[in-house]
Amino acid sequence: MREEYDIQSLNPRKNPYSNRLKKQITINIDADAIDYFKGLSSDTGVPYQTLINMYLVDCVRNNRRPMVTWE
Predict the structure, then answer these.
(1) Which residues contact residue 67 at a Cβ distance below 8 angstroms, ignoring those fewer than 6 apart?
(2) CA–CA gap between residue 2 and residue 10 (Å, rounded)
(3) CB neighbours of residue 41 within 10 Å
C-alpha cells in the first residue's frame, strides 16, 4: 500500500448505474396492501419491498393509472 495517492492522476468515471439508483422515502401503505405483498413474498422468495417496487415500476412502464374513487 502506498503512503500517498495522487488523486489528480486518477481517471474518475461516472457511475453507469447512477440513473437507476433507488431513493429511500417514507410512505404510508395500508396494512392490507403490505400483508398482500408479504404473502407474495413468502410464495416467491422475493422481499416484499422489492415486489412493491417491481409493481410500481411495471405501472410506470405500462402507463397505468389508479382508479380513484372518493367515498
Answers:
(1) none
(2) 14
(3) 16
